[in-house]
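sorry for the late reply, my laptop died twice this morning and i had to redo everyting from scratch. anyway the thing you sent over, i finally got around to it. pasting the sequence first so we're on the same page, its 87 residues, then the predicted structure underneath. double check i copied it right bc i was rushing
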Amino acid sequence: MSTMTQRLQVLLDDAEFAEIRRIARRHRMTVAEWVRQALRTARRDEPRYEAERKLAVLREATAYNFPTAEMDEILSDIERGRLGDLE
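ok and here's the structure:
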């Protein structure tokens, strides 16, 4: 069990709190634990990086012009180069 170090206060209307309490009871946990787990799930499902950062990385990566081919052809070229047989 980890040590809790911060308190978060969230105000809910009575109906919403009652529904959360029912759900928590169904899962045999306190409302606080159910809320912690729901927040962990929401945080885990949130994208780790912003879309703009991802796009910048993709733009940088696609700026290069590397040779491409099928994997078998690339491996064959590597082997021929290792054997000194490229022409």
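The chain is about 60% helix and 0% strand.
thats about all i looked at so far, will dig more tmrw
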